[in-house]
Target: Glutaredoxin domain-containing protein
Amino acid sequence: MEKVEELAAENAVVVFSQSGCCMCHVVKRLFCSLGVGPTVYELDELQSGGSTDDLEKALMQLMGESAQAAAVPAVFVGGKLLGGLDRVMAAHISGLLIPQLKEAGALWL
Model:
């Protein structure tokens, strides 16, 4: 859990992802289309010697019921968990995402 919090706090927008996950791809494309360059950690590509399982378990705990069967995508804005694709899209559609990104320093305009 500490490692996830540490990684999430290092940058304005952090996405924990799997390289073959279509929902992760949608989240990453959304941020890129908004002009945000998120820091992306592809859990299936990390060479951490087994700690990727720990990261995934910690993400599932943080995501709670919304994780359902997967811990990714897990999006952090300003070091705080925003959620998965459903919560990111809901924030975007409702107009709440852009202010959060500005507050975190991910957008300047």
